[in-house]
Fold this sequence. Notes:
GO cellular component, one term: membrane
Radius of gyration: 21 Å
Number of domains: 1
CATH architecture: Up-down Bundle
Order of helices and strands: HHHHHHHHHEEHHHHHHHHH
Distance between the termini: 11 Å
Domain Major facilitator superfamily (MFS) profile: 7-430
Strand order of the largest sheet: 1-2
Strand content: under 5%
Subcellular location: Membrane
CATH class: Mainly Alpha
Helix content: over 70%
Number of helices: 18
Main location: membrane
Structural class: mainly alpha
Membrane topology: Multi-pass membrane protein
Shape: globular
Amino acid sequence: xxxxxxxxxxxxxxxxxxxxxxxxxxxxxxxxxxxxxxxxxxxxxxxxxxxxxxxxxxxxxxxxxxxxxxxxxxxxxxxxxxxxxxxxxxxxxxxxxxxxxxxxxxxxxxxxxxxxxxxxxxxxxxxxxxxxxxxxxxxxxxxxxxxxxxxxxxxxxxxxxxxxxxxxxxxxxxxxxxxxxxxxxxxxxxxxxxxxxxxxxxxxxxxxxxxxxxxxxxxxxxxxxxxxxxxxxxxxxxxxxxxxxxxxxxxxxxxxxxxxxxxxxxxxxxxxxxxxxxxxxxxxxxxxxxxxxxxxxxxxxxxxxxxxxxxxxxxxxxxxxxxxxxxxxxxxxxxxxxxxxxxxxxxxxxxxxxxxxxxxxxxxxxxxxxxxxxxxxxxxxxxxxxxxxxxxxxxxxxxxxxxxxxxxxxxxxxxxxxxxxxxxxxxxxxxxxxxxxxxxxxx
Length: 443
């Protein structure tokens, strides 16, 4: 038990350090991009389109890579697969740590796009699989919430540091911490692949065994991934569990909305209210503090009485309300007020991952989480193709009608679709038996 808890603490430190290195540069990257591409202006269509193109390309890469990385982690271990994305993520940060001129920015843009096609989301995906290897079924939603809380804590610390550091120092610190994260992970994190599969009645990715259906009919074959999963493998996985396929639909629309926010919100706030690096950092800091407290303390209390299905629906509904507030913001204080809703919004991602995790066996967590991450990445390909042009159009003088936040309102509609779909899996049963074993610990 003590050994397992120590391993989890090393995982949390690894996630915190890598998250800190990623989050500390977010408040500054918009200003760096604008300065490199359109110096002296508050509105730059080129920056919006390039950011959207980068996001789409990253989404394409991760949609292909996440199922592969998840599957390989089931074969070769979580720690081995964590090394690659954590190491690659250092390179683009080091470039902007040297200089942020136009030429350096384009070098960063190219390498960031290439490395993020492998790195984006993979650390979180593998961390979730690592937790699922060590946490019992009934405690998994709480554990995923705590992991999200650790990420939110890294977000708070990174954003707070960005608030007081210069832009150049921000990227230098990010480079150092990302290297420290790799060293720490390699030195202290232990492998987590379980020695045996236990407590599973109908895993969605069973290793080639027959599963007898409840009605006594002939057994059906569960899908088996090869080391490089194909599109057919993913489709078979989705068909094998109704709850998993419904969770995948929710993941798609939720990620479509998140991708839209990433590609649109900062440029919308900069054009609408002239926000800069410090104001972006303030917004992120408020949201991060609220999210950390909620995920570490509030969510574990609510999981047992409400269940992860209801928490998912509540989080998506409040996220929809948050997007509506942003879209109709009439003053620069409204975005700050809207961040208070983060206390409930943050329930959605860990609850969704918990629902997906419960449909998989002990040696299949990498495949399940990789599949959900791949579907989310697919949404990230589509999101900027829709929302970046929409944002640029309605922030320009050529808008068909005056509604600067129209793209954000469309994001709210997308979240409403995810909410409606989530209601269908609110009481979805787990296909794995909740059973304490020597491989799992309670949190």
